[in-house]
């Protein structure tokens, strides 16, 4: 049993700890009280019930806010008190939780993440103000780059804005990608929950760039040999140029030429959503996941369609089914949408997959996939989470209206539990957490 200090000593320790923390955050930290040793955390619009175990022995106990963008509010709720902070890039806030026995838990909320992935240039790679990675368009128009993991042979890796992990499939191991696994976890993905193996401390190389200490998830199947999520470029600007088949990575967005339009964006469960409006005689604005790992044009969730009374009278093209990492499949009705509005740009005759009631975990109002996205050169600012689109030479090409069974979200391993944790924040030290995040 932990030794308890006398009340006077506890008070002195509290003052001393407050002075030490206050010196780092610009003043004495605020104090909240708790009777129970478990607290809830609301991070932006994500509520994490029972997430935070109060640990006086951690001095300080650090909660890292990730993907902060232009800022958001973080609130800790004990059973009797609460404290809230507006967090912005580079900010740190300290507070103290006092328990009935006089123990004090010095706690820090910070956006400075020492585990954020950062790359350097492989020896011989020319220094430049921008880093350029060549890509090809594979099945379903998806973006593939060439790379290696832990010195493997060349791997075909899909760049997926709908994932916030690096993922390898079985085919990568046949090409020499050796991983040392640290454990397994259950991960909710499109099509159901799967068990994934985790590995840490890996070396990733893509296009003359190198990342060290990369966590990797192993799964049985994916397009190509694996996936690189957008998290490898956090705090960067990423430009996808479909005409030149290049990804350009910069420290800040470039000066944008004529034709680029900025879309309203939101972060939700660690993923990027953009606003689009479906036009079928009426106007149905919604928030759709920006997902280069999805093959089809536009997937609309059943709850959104029901709530907005969409669709109206539209041509029915048939039905399809879509699958992801899980074993289940979701059936959809395929219809032709008169127009889809993205900013001031409009696409006409867009095929839309309307989800039938399935119980599938919803991802906003739906998913914007590659049969739309490949028609626009795209700039994504992963510092402030802003998105710009400009029509390119693919804009007038025919859409895929085939009704054959096919993959929609083969990169959706980053959703649900793992994405919510990545977005909402994490504990800096590895400790047992109680509960899982809930929206």
Tell me the layout of helices and strands.
Layout: H1 7-25, E1 30-33, E2 38-43, E3 46-53, E4 61-64, E5 72-77, E6 82-87, E7 92-98, E8 104-110, E9 119-121, E10 131-134, E11 136-137, E12 143-149, E13 155-160, E14 166-168, H2 170-173, E15 181-189, E16 192-206, E17 209-218, E18 226-229, E19 237-241, E20 246-250, E21 261-263, E22 265-268, E23 271-279, E24 283-290, E25 298-300, H3 302-307, E26 315-323, E27 329-342, E28 345-355, E29 366-368, H4 370-373, E30 376-381, E31 386-391, E32 406-407, H5 416-424, E33 426-427
Parallel strand pairs: 1-7, 4-8, 13-18, 14-17, 24-29, 25-28, 26-32
Antiparallel strand pairs: 2-3, 2-5, 4-33, 5-6, 7-8, 9-17, 10-20, 11-12, 12-13, 12-16, 14-18, 15-16, 16-17, 19-20, 19-30, 21-31, 22-23, 23-24, 23-27, 25-29, 26-27, 27-28, 30-31
Describe the structure.
This protein is mainly beta. It has three domains: 7-114, no CATH class; 119-250, Cathepsin D, subunit A, domain 1 (Beta Barrel); 261-421, Cathepsin D, subunit A, domain 1 (Beta Barrel), CATH 2.40.70. It is 10% helix and 46% strand. The chain has five helices and 33 strands. The strands form five sheets. It has a six-stranded mixed β-barrel with strand order 12-13-18-14-17-16. A hairpin with a 5-residue loop joins β26 (315-323) and β27.
């Amino acid at each position: 049993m932990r030794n308890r200090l006398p009340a006077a000593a506890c008070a002195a320790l509290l003052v001393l700890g407050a002075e030490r923390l206050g010196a780092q955050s610009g003043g004495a930290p605020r104090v909240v009280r708790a009777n129970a040793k478990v607290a809830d955390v609301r991070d932006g619009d994500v509520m994490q019930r029972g997430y935070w175990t109060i640990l006086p022995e951690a001095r300080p106990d650090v909660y890292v806010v990730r993907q902060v963008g232009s800022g958001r509010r973080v609130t800790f709720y004990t059973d009797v008190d609460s404290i809230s902070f507006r967090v912005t890039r580079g900010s740190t806030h300290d507070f103290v939780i006092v328990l009935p026995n006089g123990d004090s838990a010095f706690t820090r909320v910070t956006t400075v993440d020492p585990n954020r992935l950062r790359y350097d240039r492989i020896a011989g790679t020319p220094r430049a103000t921008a880093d350029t990675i060549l890509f090809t368009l594979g099945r379903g128009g998806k973006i593939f780059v060439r790379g290696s993991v832990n010195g493997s042979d060349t791997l075909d890796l899909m760049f997926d804005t709908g994932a916030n992990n690096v993922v390898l499939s079985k085919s990568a191991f046949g090409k020499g990608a050796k991983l040392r696994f640290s454990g397994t976890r259950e991960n909710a993905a499109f099509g159901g929950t799967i068990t994934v193996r985790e590995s840490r401390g890996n070396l990733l190389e893509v296009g003359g760039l190198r990342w060290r200490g990369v966590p990797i998830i192993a799964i049985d199947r994916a397009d190509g040999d694996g996936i690189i999520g957008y998290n490898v470029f956090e705090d960067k600007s990423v430009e996808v140029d479909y005409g030149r088949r290049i990804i350009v990575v910069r420290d800040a967005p470039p000066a944008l030429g004529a034709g680029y339009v900025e879309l309203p964006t939101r972060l939700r469960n660690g993923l990027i959503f953009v606003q689009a409006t479906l036009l079928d005689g009426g106007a149905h604005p919604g928030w759709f996941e920006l997902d280069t790992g999805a093959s089809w044009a536009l997937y609309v969730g059943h709850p959104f369609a029901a709530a907005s009374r969409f669709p109206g009278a539209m041509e029915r093209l048939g039905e399809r089914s879509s699958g992801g990492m899980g074993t289940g499949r979701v059936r959809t009705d395929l219809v032709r949408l008169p127009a889809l509005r993205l900013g001031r740009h409009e696409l006409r005759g867009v095929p839309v997959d309307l989800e039938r009631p399935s119980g599938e975990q919803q991802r906003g109002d739906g998913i914007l996939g590659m049969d739309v996205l490949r028609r626009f050169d795209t700039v994504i600012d992963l510092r402030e989470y802003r998105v710009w689109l400009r029509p390119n030479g693919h804009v007038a090409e025919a859409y895929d209206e085939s009704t054959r069974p096919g993959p929609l979200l083969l990169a959706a391993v980053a959703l649900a539990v793992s994405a919510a944790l990545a977005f909402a924040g994490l504990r800096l030290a590895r400790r047992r957490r109680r509960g899982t995040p809930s929206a």
